[in-house]
Amino acid sequence: MDPNLVRTFMTVARLGSFSAAAAELGYTQSAVSQQIATLEADLGTPLLSRRPVAPTGAGERRLQHAGPLLLRIRAARADVRRVAAAPAHRLTLAAGPLALGPAVAARLARARVRLPRLTVTVRACAAGEAARLVAGGEAELGLVAGIAAPSDPLRLPDVGPLTATGAEEEPLVVALPDGHPLAGRAGLRLADLVDARWLRTPLCPLERLRDLAGDGFRAGLHYTGDDLRTVTSLVAAGHGLTLLPASAAPGVPLLAPRLVHRVELVHGALPPGPAADLAAALAPS
Amino acid sequence: MDPNLVRTFMTVARLGSFSAAAAELGYTQSAVSQQIATLEADLGTPLLSRRPVAPTGAGERRLQHAGPLLLRIRAARADVRRVAAAPAHRLTLAAGPLALGPAVAARLARARVRLPRLTVTVRACAAGEAARLVAGGEAELGLVAGIAAPSDPLRLPDVGPLTATGAEEEPLVVALPDGHPLAGRAGLRLADLVDARWLRTPLCPLERLRDLAGDGFRAGLHYTGDDLRTVTSLVAAGHGLTLLPASAAPGVPLLAPRLVHRVELVHGALPPGPAADLAAALAPS
DNA sequence: TCGTCTTACGAGAAGCGTAAGAATT
DNA sequence: AATTCTTACGCTTCTCGTAAGACGA
Fold first, then answer.
1. Which one of A179, B65, B151, B221 is most buried, by most CB atoms within 10 A?
2. How many helices (H) and strands (E) does chain B have?
3. According to the model, what pLDDT value does residue B251 have?
4. Which bases of chain D come closer than 7 Å to a protein CB?
5. What residue in B sits closest to A152 (Cα-Cα)?
6. Chain A residues whose beta carbon lies within 8 Å of the beta carbon of residue B84
7. Which pLDDT value is given to residue A57?
8. Residue numbers 31-70 of A with CB closer than 7 A to any atom of strand C
9. Crossing angle between the packed helical segments A3-15 and A18-25, to the nearest 10 degrees
10. SS (H, E, C) A11-41
11. pLDDT band, residue A235 (cuts 50/70/90)
12. How many Å apart are CA A152 and CA B78, to the nearest integer?
């Protein structure tokens, strides 16, 4: 239905209050009440329980759909506007944590020499957000990093027709605490480390490890940020192991190369122009 | 924006005419003209060229988004209604071609004995449509078949939060023409057959083969249907090779088991009831 | 000149805000 | 009694249909 109603519903569910949602969205409480009533009438089932305001079962389910749905709508708008827009001389490159490695950085430098009139802004973003920023039109290009089998594509969130090209692959290393018995070894295998405790961090998601290398990988400390220094300190202090791209952690045992750190460049429709030139330079295919 | 405008745009683009679209949708030409104008004003760019009526570049791009977008909207509606609906005693099982093999059929039979009050309709559908039917609410359960590496999940079209469970895996065989030199062999490898001509049919998509086993696999005759008898006849007459699940083509050389025929059961939210019971019986996890 | 899309204008419907009412704490 | 959601009602805005206009073939 009307995306505005969905947005209102999300806001009410998030704030747990009709009046607060109305204030945030610039409506009156009455309008919000009517909008929710419209949604519920359309679906033929209540989405929110009142007093206290909380989503019902059906409402929970509707909420799960809401985010991806609104994103797709924004993505469609952004994508079309991009096709129609004149070639711009400023562009934003969204980069997730660990996504901008030495190879890409070097290519970016060379490309900027070749394209002197192009102003590039690199925008840091959380893990998994780069693709969403590109889809939503807030960035022209995005760099997404992840762990994958060599030359396998990453699993990107589905946000519409984005093009993804491999931009960089480098070996993974296992960050180990100081004095760990395996620290001296040249090549480690994941199989030797399934029973260890692993840091939970967006930089090296445990679920991804389990997907790629089987169960195990017990969870250690949970760190929700993406600061590399913090991660290496936590590992050194023994809070858990983690995988890092080799260039980010020199002098650490390499992981036997069944898995690599892979970076992909994602973008939507790119009309010929500086943006397309930069994309070609960053991810030579 | 408004899904109705998108639907109108799709219709106009498909029919190449404002008046024809108006007739089909029950609007006047004027209304269609205004709706298209609204869409174009919203995006700030023309979507259709007039005389003749055909999509512009931006319009083409918008069309690519339109189908998935409307599907997701329908999926959200259907999913929520399913959660809220009372447990039903009739349900539809959508089955793509080659999806309902002997193991699933046997489980279905046993389940129907255990659930005598449940009326099941098996609805045949084109390859790749089963997931869409389930997402759109036209079927409660869906069976999707495809070629995959053993115990690897299939790649399903993204249509929202569907649950997929492996239901059956069986060996693949290579269907060869009569008197083919390799027909006597017990086990074949795909690598031996990359240079052969392969039937293009939805039952065994060439792109999927190339994805899984490298380039090659030259295209032979294109058959757009999914009739098994037709396929075997075409193969026998030498129009090209194809892969089939072993149970569908007895007495044919087995493919060395790097790839299997895999069937998955997909469904949306299933409140406790007969539908959930049947799902559990069809895909024991 | 005919067919087709666009624009102008009036009627109806839909949505929002104000304000009063109901329900829960 | 106070807070919060719902409902009633008037007003504005939007959308559709009719009808006239513009543009090509």
1. B65
2. 9, 12
3. 67
4. 4-8, 15-20, 24-25
5. B211
6. 43-45, 57-58
7. 87
8. 31, 34-35, 38, 51
9. 130
10. HHHHHCCHHHHHHHHCCCHHHHHHHHHHHHH
11. confident
12. 34
Q: Do domains B3-83 and B169-260 have the same CATH topology?
A: no
Chain A CA closest to residue B76: A65
Q: Which of A9-13, A223-227, B145-149 has the lowest mean pLDDT?
A: A223-227
CA dihedral A18, A23, A26, A32 (to 10 degrees): 10
How far does B269 lie from chain A, in Å, by closest CA? 8
- For residue B35, say whether its CB is under 7 Å from any atom of strand D: yes
Distance from CA(A159) to C1'(C6), angstroms, rounded = 36
Instruction: Return the CATH number of the domain spanning residue range A3-83.
Output: 1.10.10.10
Residue A221 above 90 pLDDT?
Answer: no
Closest by CA position to A187, among listed A170, A201, A174: A174
What per-residue confidence (pLDDT) applies to B82? 84
- Please, are residues A111 and A167 in contact by the beta-carbon 8 Å criterion? no
Contact A45 B76 (CB under 8 A): no
- Sequence-ordered strand ranges (E) for A50-204: 54-55, 90-95, 119-124, 141-148, 163-175, 187-188, 197-200
Checking if the pLDDT of A257 tops 70, the result is no
* Chain B residue whose CA is closest to A81: B43
The pLDDT confidence band at residue A267, using thresholds 50, 70 and 90, is very high
Residues of B in contact with A272 (CB under 8 A): none
> Angle A255-A258-A262 (CA atoms, 0-180°, nearest 5)?
85
CATH 3.30.70.20 fits A86-160+263-282, yes or no: no
Spans of chain B below 50 pLDDT = none
Domain B169-260, CATH number (from 3.40.190.10, 3.40.50.11030, 1.10.3720.10, 3.30.450.180): 3.40.190.10
Q: Is the dihedral of CA B76, B82, B85, B88 positive or negative?
A: positive
Q: For position A251, what pLDDT does the model report?
A: 66
Q: What is the pLDDT of residue B257?
A: 67
> Which residues pair with residue A59 across a beta bridge?
none
3-state helix, strand, coil in chain A (%, to 5): 40, 25, 35
Query: How close does chain A come to B15, measured CA to CA in Å?
Result: 21
Q: Are A253 and A186 in contact (CB under 8 A)?
A: yes
Taking an 8 Å cut-off on Cβ atoms, the answer to whether A61 and B160 are in contact is: no
Question: Which residues, in sequence order, are bridge partners of residue A243?
Answer: A174
Q: Which chain C nucleotides are covered by protein, judged by CB under 7 A?
A: 4-8, 15-20, 24-25
User: What is the CB-side half-sphere exposure of residue B39 using CA atoms within 13 A?
Assistant: 27
pLDDT tens track for A74-109: 989 988 888 787 777 888 889 988 888 888 888 888
Q: Is 70 exceeded by the pLDDT of residue A20?
A: yes
Is the CB of A36 within 7 Å of strand D?
yes
pTM of the predicted model, to two decimals? Answer: 0.78
**Domain segments of chain B: what residues?**
3-83, 86-160+263-282, 169-260
**According to the model, what pLDDT value does residue A12 have?**
94
